[in-house]
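Chapter review: from sequence to fold.
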Amino acid sequence: MLIELDIDAFIAQKSEFDLLIDARSPKEFYESHIANAQNFYALSDEEHQEVGTLYKQVSRNDAKLLGARYICQNVAHHLEHIAKSYKIGSKIGIYCARGGLRSSSIAIILSHIGYQVFRLGGGYKQYRFYVLSYLENLPHYRFIVLGGNTGCGKSELLQSLQPSIDLEKLANHLGSSFGSIKGAQPSQKAFENSLCEILCKIDPNAYIFIEAESKKMGTCTIPALLHVRLLQGYRIEITAPLEQRIERILKEYESMTPAFFNQAMQMIAPYIKKTVKEAVLHAYEEGNLSEVAKILLIEYYDLVYKKPRHIDAILDNADESATLEALNALHVKLSTV
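The token string follows.
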């Protein structure tokens, strides 16, 4: 069975698929893809480039013949894994870049074997249009926004609150000069896809817990309308004792390499006093990371942090369980108004 679905039907049935196949090249898949998809490519990166060049510069027919040969070889290899992991009759969703030959070639073979195959018409291009349209016309308008100085435990609170969105986790960035310590960030497309997938599962009328962030988080940019909604949200300023803030910073930065530290210090050097920079470097050389964190919190992070003009409430996070209780009570209160 082979059925072609439009994007709305595909999204509605996506959770029912036993396997979701991205038939694009590994390079395309790595940049961004639909959540939970697996990359059973029709053409490898090299093959995709070769066939594309042949198609544009030499002969369309020759390109189709070469592409078909490569696809048959790749599908033969993929079938070994698919057959072992997914029994005949399983539901399989599939897409390629534009809903063309790459996905249709694999879909036809799988359907003839006996799988229930659902192909996305218009391919990944249609999915991206869906994501961008959703974010540009965001139906969610109720946000409880957690702000506050670095190290006050906002991210930890979000992990225990529902519904919530952790933008720093999605962007793999801490939203500061040392924010890229988590490693490589997702592409902007991947960031938007993940954000959309989470939002789609949340009632548009529900209050959503989220952390206050700058529009730019490293290389990722928060969608314009969402950022506006954050600025308009119910703002809670989270505070915490300095000792606890230092402990949290140390946990975040325990994997920091000397090279990363020096690079980050160069970035913030224009914004701190020379004596502060020297004190931080000396503490780091001495291996006193607690002192490094303390100085940076007091002499850099706290000074550059800009409090909003309007704050609806202030919560001290010295006791996380008490803070969570207060936040959950607030959520109930706001939701019943």
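Two observations follow directly from the output. The chain has 15 helices and twelve strands. The radius of gyration is 25 Å.
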